[in-house]
Design a protein that fits this description.
Oligomer: single chain
Shape: elongated
Number of strands: 8
Largest sheet: 6 strands, antiparallel
Strand content: 35-45%
Structural class: alpha+beta
Strand order of the largest sheet: 4-5-6-7-3-8
């Protein structure tokens, strides 16, 4: 039987901020709460390079590396006439998606990761890469109450 976070909690095992590496469900235990993963809703404003698909690809790769995640694939699409880009980096730990409106200097990103990945580390990468004047982040702990 696979070791899971639920089994660890049922057995009363000591867990640090992250659940044991041997588990298979990749749920996170942090601040005494067990949840599926951290989902960041990131709005970048007053930003540049939001129509540059090559720059966006490089930036998503840097975000994945900074967060300690595992990249599986990237799919990006350029829209005309405004040059906006929509796309996703598929991760073993979940995904990073982007939808940009270069004519407004705005992009909406989702950064969702489970397990030991650290999605918060992607935020400064985004701010720097897009020379964003403002970055707003909302954090949601997904799957609270599912186990434990």
């Amino acid at each position: 039987m696979d070791f899971t976070t639920a089994a660890a909690l049922d057995e009363g095992l000591e867990l640090d901020d992250r659940a044991d590496e041997a588990r298979k469900d990749f749920f996170v235990v942090k601040d005494g709460e067990c949840f599926a993963g951290t989902h960041l809703l990131v709005d970048i404003r007053e930003a540049e390079y939001l129509d540059d698909i090559t720059h966006i690809d490089r930036t998503l790769r840097k975000c994945v590396e900074a967060a300690g995640a595992t990249l599986l694939s990237i799919d990006l699409h350029n829209f005309e006439p405004n040059g906006g880009v929509s796309g996703v980096a598929i991760l073993a730990e979940s995904h990073i998606s982007i939808h940009s409106w270069p004519e407004y200097g705005y992009a909406a990103l989702d950064v969702f990761m489970c397990g030991d990945a650290m999605p918060q580390k992607a935020v400064p990468v985004l701010k720097k890469a897009f020379n964003a004047g403002r970055v707003d982040v909302q954090e949601v702990r997904r799957g609270k109450g599912m186990v434990g």
